[in-house]
Amino acid sequence: MTDPRPYHILSYGTLLGTQVFQSFVGGIIAFRALPRPQFASLQTAIFPIYFSMQTALPVVVGLTASRGGQALGLSGLTAPENCCSTLLPMATVAVTGLVNLFVLRPLTTNVMRERKHQETRDGKKSYDAGPHSKEMLALNKKFGRVHGISSLVNMVSLIATVYYGAVLSKRLQ
C-alpha cells in the first residue's frame, strides 16, 4: 500500500482515459444524439467535474512519480532530469485544467446565458438559420472564439498527457 507506482499508473490512466473519452467519444456522441438544449445542459454539468479531474489528477501523478518504488518528492520532481519529463507536462495539464475551470468555462457559460436572453428578444434560436440580429451574430462569434480557445487549451493538455505517457513508457522495465 505504500508503493506509489500503482497509484501513479492508475492516476495517469484515469487522466488519459478521461481526456480521450470526453474529447473524442462522449462529447461527439452527445452532440449528435441530443437536441442542442439538452446537449448544452449535459456539457454544463460534465465540464466542472472534467476540468476538476484534469486539474487534480496530474498533481497525483506528479506526487506519485517514483524511481524503483521510492517516491521522488518535490525535490526529485524539480531535479533537472525530471523537470522537463515529469514536472513540466503534469504542471501544464494542471494549469490548463485550472484555466478551463476558472476562466474559460465561466466565460462560455456567460455567453450562453447572454445568447439565451438574445434568443428571447429576437424570437429565434442562436442556431436557427439566419438572418440573425447583429447582437446575436456578435454573441455567436464570441461563443465560437471562447469555445475554440477552450478546445485548444484542452488539446494542449491532452498532448502534454500523451507526452508524459511516452516518458513513462521509457521508464518501464
TrEMBL record:
<dbReference type="GO" id="GO:0016020">
    <property type="term" value="C:membrane"/>
</dbReference>
<dbReference type="InterPro" id="IPR025423">
    <property type="entry name" value="TMEM205-like"/>
</dbReference>
<feature type="transmembrane region" description="Helical">
    <location>
        <begin position="86"/>
        <end position="107"/>
    </location>
</feature>
<keyword id="KW-0812">Transmembrane</keyword>
<keyword id="KW-1133">Transmembrane helix</keyword>
<dbReference type="Pfam" id="PF13664">
    <property type="entry name" value="DUF4149"/>
</dbReference>
<dbReference type="InterPro" id="IPR053009">
    <property type="entry name" value="Xanthocillin_Biosynth-Assoc"/>
</dbReference>
<feature type="domain" description="TMEM205-like">
    <location>
        <begin position="10"/>
        <end position="117"/>
    </location>
</feature>
<keyword id="KW-0472">Membrane</keyword>
<feature type="transmembrane region" description="Helical">
    <location>
        <begin position="46"/>
        <end position="66"/>
    </location>
</feature>
<feature type="transmembrane region" description="Helical">
    <location>
        <begin position="12"/>
        <end position="34"/>
    </location>
</feature>
<protein>
    <recommendedName>
        <fullName>TMEM205-like domain-containing protein</fullName>
    </recommendedName>
</protein>
<feature type="transmembrane region" description="Helical">
    <location>
        <begin position="146"/>
        <end position="166"/>
    </location>
</feature>
